[in-house]
Amino acid sequence: MLDGRGADVSAGAHDLVIRTDDGRELEAELTWGDRTTPRAGVVLCHPHPQYGGTMRSLVISVLFAELSAAGFACLRFNFRGVEASTGSYDHGEGEQLDVLAAVATMANAVAPAPVALVGWSFGADMSLTVVDPRVAGWVAIAPLLRFRPTFPAASERRPKHLVLAANDEFRPPGDVEEAVAGWTATTVAVVPGASHFFVGRTDRVVAETLAGLAGLATP
Fold it and tell me: How far is the CA of 214 from the CAs of 26, 56, 148, 154, 219, in angstroms?
C-alpha cells in the first residue's frame, strides 16, 4: 500500500509532510501496523495548540498505537504552528484547512477504504467542522463545542459518536449532551471517573472509539 507520495506504508510508522491549500506544511505520521489492507483510515486531531496540544498528546498517542493494532490506518498530524508544522495558530479558521489536507492525504493512501475523523478537545471541535464527502463518520472525544460558531457535521446523516468525560473540568457532559440533543445520527457515551485528559481512562476511550468506528470499517 502506498501513501500520497508513493512510499510503502504497509508496516511501521512513516513521517509525512502534508501540504494545505493555503501553503502550510504540516508534520504528520502515518501507520497501519502490519495489516496489508486497513479496515479504514483514521485521521487523529490533537488538542488546543496554545495549551500544549500536539499530535503526541496522551489520548492521540494511545489511539495512534491501539487503532493501528486493531487494523486501522492512522494518521496524526500537528496543526499549523505546532512543533515542525509551519504557520501559526489561526483561531480555528486555518486549522480547518489542516484537517481537510489530512483527510485528502489519508483518503489517497487507503482508497477505497473509508476515512473517519477522530478528534480530542479542540481537535474534536475542528473535526466536526469538516464535512468533506470523503469522511464516513466522526468520533469526537471531549468536544467543548466552543471553538467555532457552528458545527456542520451536526446535520449530516453520517454517524457521529461523542465520548465525554464524566468529570470534565472545562464543560460538564450534561451541557454537551444538551447541545447535541438535536444533532442527526449522533450517539453519546460518558466515561465514568474520567477528567478531560482521561488519565487512567484511555482504555475506555479506545473502546468507545472502536465502537464509534465499528460501522464504518471492513471486518
Answer: 29, 24, 28, 20, 8
Query: Going by C-beta distance under 8 Å and a sequence separation of 6 or more, which residues neighbour residue 105?
Result: 3, 4, 16, 18, 28, 30, 75
What grid cell was written down for 36? 496489508
Residue 132 in 3-state DSSP?
A: coil
> What are the chain's domains?
13-213 (3.40.50.1820)
Strand 25-31 and strand 73-77: the pairing is: antiparallel
**Per-residue pLDDT, 9:** 43
* Helix/strand/coil for 69: helix
User: Which has the higher per-residue pLDDT, 175 or 219?
Assistant: 175
pTM, to two decimals: 0.94
147 compared with 215, residue with greater pLDDT:
147
